[in-house]
From TrEMBL:
The lineage of its organism: Eukaryota, Viridiplantae, Streptophyta, Embryophyta, Tracheophyta. PROSITE patterns: PPR. This is Pentatricopeptide repeat-containing protein. It comes from Eleusine coracana subsp. coracana. It comes from the Eukaryota. InterPro entries: PPR_rpt, TPR-like_helical_dom_sf. GO terms for molecular function: mRNA binding.
Length: 616
């Protein structure tokens, strides 16, 4: 080994610059001489010099091990102690394939090392291919491989696949550890599947799931699974998202009382949830507890308080927190400023929002795309189109490219403003900036135009979509139908409906309710039978809104008998004694003739809809 280092030192003293190829030559020389330890010393020196061994380097070692008849050790040594450990997973995979080609049969260690490494590097598809190969060769999977694959599937949002891997581990008598549980709990909670998180921990035992997240916690405690702040944050987050704030607080307090060292993330999650449910006193109490535990609030904690106070309209209190943040030695960051800018734009105080942008620049805090989107949307909503355009140009000059989300947000802002006429101008600017609109953007544009009665312009947009190869969907056509109905162009609405069918799109209940609403508004409710017939032909049943439209329409046409018949059909109530007397007492405006016609219908009162019947 010393000889190897001496060689490198002599070369350096003579001014020879050694690259990867040079090191590989040295490695090859020592391996040929049978001095493997010296060759590995060269590799370590190579790393110190900032160079990375490559496949050639490790193949050289493999050749030497093969000479010694220890092929498998050579293979594993290169993968485990070499490329895999250095985080160079794709090179490790390439080496793996080379060795398989020359007849080396990978063993359990080889497969598990490579699958685990690739999954952690988010190369899960390659891991899955290796898994299939591993199973076909009859090589057993260990818990590390199962957990790595569960983690990858969870991060991809593929919860069913993650659960399948978990069940496979159980079937192979592998005992999940706290890492396995943490991975699955986090995946389920983040996707809102609290009930399924509980099922994982109860080994597929079906439960009611009413207190799912707390049961998960209890199961883990009973099974002696080690808890950590990551698990707690996943559970608390899941409970909050599912509206179970009391359970989240209870779990948090329980973990704290057990002496677990909760961190800033745990506290921030709970404080944010408490604020969003309007429980300010509890949020401040948790913040006080954080400080009592000598966990000084960080920027994330302050940002939660500032954001929630602004959302509650408490500007004075929010500003005091910004001042306190600075006094504690922390500077407001992008998140802080974006929060303040959002609050001022929401209140229509765009001049203050623009001052904050100037302040960001003075303090060398780089605005991001979110900052510009908030400001431009705020200016458009306030009707200050020229300033909005100026800022849009500033955004592109700063190197920011608008996204589809930016595009949609600005179109929506135009809809909410006093200058909805500029919506197409903003759309054109976005398209000219190099952004290619997707279906969601076009649907937003069509909706905005139709909502404001600009159906002709919306039809032009439909043609633009066709030219760009973007096929409209049922949402696009529903918006157009609604626009024509709102404008009183009911025949045009039916024309759009026919076009929708010609393109092979299936109407939904919203389509039919919109058409019925158009007929009702136009005083043509008598034509509703055709719409109802088509609705039933496509397998749709009327819902409450359908009946409300029909009842209201027939009542306005003074057809009270049909209105009440439909009302009774909606409620599906029969043989109700005394209902006629009840109707007369509640709505004496019904005529005797109407009551006689209703005598066989047995109806009961339903205030919102029945009011239309009686007043018609």
């Amino acid at each position: 080994m010393a000889a190897a280092l001496d060689v490198v030192d002599r070369m350096r003293k003579e001014g020879v610059e050694i690259d990867v190829m040079g090191y590989n030559s040295l490695v090859a020389g020592f391996c040929r001489a049978g001095q493997v330890d010296a060759a590995w010393a060269i590799v370590e020196t190579m790393k110190v010099d900032g160079l990375h061994p490559n496949v050639v380097t490790y193949t050289t070692f493999i050749g030497e091990y093969c000479t010694r008849k220890d092929i498998q050790e050579a293979f594993n040594f290169a993968l485990v102690d070499g490329l895999g450990r250095d985080g160079r997973f794709l090179e490790a995979y390439a080496l793996f394939r080379e060795m398989v080609k020359i007849g080396v049969v990978p063993n359990h260690v080889t497969y598990c090392t490579l699958i685990d490494s690739l999954a952690k590097a988010q190369r899960g598809n390659v891991s899955l291919a290796l898994l299939g190969e591993m199973v076909s060769r009859g090589v057993a999977m260990d818990l590390v491989v199962h957990t790595a694959l569960m983690d990858w599937f969870g991060k991809q949002g593929k919860i069913d696949e993650a659960n399948t891997i978990f069940q496979h581990a159980l079937l192979n008598n592998l005992t999940p550890n706290h890492v396995t549980y943490t991975v699955l709990i986090d995946a389920h909670c983040k996707t809102g599947y609290i009930d399924r998180a509980e099922q994982v921990l109860s080994h597929m035992e079906e439960k009611s799931g009413q207190e799912a997240a707390l049961d998960v916690y209890d199961d883990m405690s009973r099974q002696g699974v080690e808890m950590n702040s990551f698990v707690v944050d996943s559970l608390v987050n899941g409970l909050i998202k599912n509206g179970k704030m009391e359970e989240a607080e209870s779990l948090f307090k329980d973990m704290s009382s057990r002496g677990m060292l909760l961190d800033h993330v745990n506290y921030t999650t709970l404080i944010d949830g408490l604020f969003k449910t309007g429980n300010m006193p509890a949020a401040f109490r948790v913040g006080q507890e954080l400080m009592e535990r000598n966990l000084l609030p960080d920027a994330a904690v302050y940002n939660v308080f500032i954001n929630c106070l602004y959302m509650l309209g408490k500007f004075k209190e929010a500003k005091s927190f910004v001042a306190e943040m600075r006094n504690s030695g922390l500077e407001p960051d992008q998140v802080t400023y974006n929060t303040m800018i959002t609050a001022h734009c929401r209140e229509g105080k765009t001049h203050k929002a623009l001052k904050l942008l100037d302040e960001m620049n003075r303090r060398s805090i780089q605005p991001n795309l979110i900052t510009y989107t908030i400001l431009v949307a705020g200016l458009l909503k306030a009707g200050d189109v020229e300033k909005a355009k100026y800022l849009l140009n500033g955004m592109t000059s700063a190197g920011f490219t608008p996204t589809f989300m930016t595009h949609r947000r600005l179109l929506q802002a135009c809809s909410e403003s006093r200058r909805v006429d500029v919506v197409l101008e903003i759309h054109e600017w976005m398209m000219n900036s190099g952004l290619h609109a997707d279906l969601l953007v076009y649907n937003t544009l069509v909706h905005v135009l139709c909502y404001h009665g600009m159906t002709r312009k919306a039809t032009v947009v439909l043609d633009e979509m066709s030219k760009r190869g973007i096929a409209p969907d049922s949402i696009t056509f529903n918006a157009l139908i609604l626009g024509h109905c709102k404008s009183g162009h009911i025949d045009n609405a039916f024309g759009i409906y026919a076009q929708m069918l010609q393109q092979g799109l299936s109407p939904n209940i919203a389509t039919f309710n919109t058409l019925l609403g158009g007929l009702e508004s136009a005083g043509r409710i008598g034509e509703a039978d055709t719409v109802l017939s088509e609705m039933k032909n496509v397998g749709l049943e009327p819902n409450n809104l359908t009946y409300d439209i029909l009842v209201s329409g027939f009542a306005k046409k003074s057809n009270k008998v049909e209105a009440v018949r439909l009302y009774c059909e909606m409620l599906n109530i029969y043989e109700v004694e005394g209902c006629i007397t009840l109707l007369m007492s509640l709505h004496p405006t019904l005529t005797v003739a109407s009551m006689a016609a209703l005598a066989e219908l047995n109806v009961v009162n339903h205030e919102s809809t029945f009011g239309d019947v009686a007043d018609g």
